[in-house]
Amino acid sequence: MKVMFFGYIRDITGAKETSMQGPTNLKQLLHKLCDIYGKNLKSRVFDNDDIGREVIILINGRNAAFTGGAETTLSEDDEISIFPVMAGG
């Protein structure tokens, strides 16, 4: 699967995108990414063992919050986009 990083998430990972194989749900994918990119990423993408409030994660363009959250099933041809929540004024 293809994972794309945006905003300060890209700064944390030092990568625009990466490919992953193996995870069958979003939680597994996020844990694998945190193993690679470290605790700074983990503090942004997780709140306990659920998706944190600092990120929006899209799976094939659909917000994971509406597809099952961290338990969303993934397949090898999915595209996952991880965005920081932005505020403005």
UniProtKB/TrEMBL annotation:
Sections of the chain in a coiled coil: none
Record-linked InterPro entries: Beta-grasp_dom_sf, MoaD_arc-typ, Mopterin_synth/thiamin_S_b, Sulfur_Carrier/Prot_Modifier, ThiS/MoaD-like
Top-level taxon: Bacteria
A Pfam family assignment: ThiS
PANTHER family for the chain: SULFUR CARRIER PROTEIN CYSO, SULFUR CARRIER PROTEIN SLR0821-RELATED
Protein's UniProt name: MoaD/ThiS family protein
